[in-house]
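Morning run. Coffee first, then this:
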Amino acid sequence: MICPKGENPRVIVMALGFRIDMKPHLGAFDLVERKDHMDLFGATALIAFALHLAFNQVVIKVTSGGFGPIFQAGVRSLGAVIVLMIWMRLRGVSFKVPRTALAGGIASGLFFTLEFMCLFTALDITTVSRASVIFYSMPVWLSLIAHFFFPNERLTRLKLLGLILAMSGVAIALADRGDGAFSWKGDLMALTSAFCWAGIICCVRMTPLSQVPPAQQLMFQVMISAPILLLLAPFFGPMLREVEVIHVAGLLFQIIAVASLGFLVWFWLMSIYPASSVASFSFLSPVFSVILGWLLLSEDVALSVWGALVLVASGIYLINRKPRIPA
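And here it is:
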């Protein structure tokens, strides 16, 4: 399968920050006919997926009421390993990877571990709205890194404007202390997780791991993170809190609908639609996260956070906007 001329499948990873480097060959998804434009089904599916990811931020926050954040992240990774192993076996996807990809796989797994240690901790001690605005700023930091390390991804004037807008939004979110109930620790944890997210993509793109099928890349990350997170969990407070059915359900939702099969659905969409078209939907995730935090958790979202959200979402949109080609 060949991507349409002018489309780079890896650009979407910069937009949404998914932890896997995309390429035309997707193994089990090769039989899907690729389209050169976004249709109604694709747009609906991508909007739904952005909403799905935003809802997951709320689920993590709620699930923290029953499980410690690091333990929750570790169990999620462990569960994802099991689900992915079953899926790969049923689909005939090989578990073998080239030796040259091992270093990149280990590095991405370590970044993944730190990313979710920080993100789950951030969501435990601050609001979904604040954490999401900061966390989903990842494309901003990645575009800045790409300008210096990836020759074909220099900052254009439009991208630079998007970068300035989004960085301003993050600065506003960090500067707003509200009534003092928001901790610097939570904000910095969310920011660190965004940096790790960008780091994963960079280490994948700079190593032979980019030639490994997506399911195997994801397996690297959850398989490495699971034991590390579970071993560290006892050092970060009680692993079990007041566990109820809703907390167990939340953990199962993360394992099945997000960390394993959820991302595989996203890869399926990526195998069908142009990368630049998919990238244009990336700004919706922080928007939906703030709205859901406000609606479902009754979070008090300050006016400054709404303003920060507009700046970050606008910046991400401009960074991923495909430049017009003169006729």
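The radius of gyration is 19 Å. Good start to the day.
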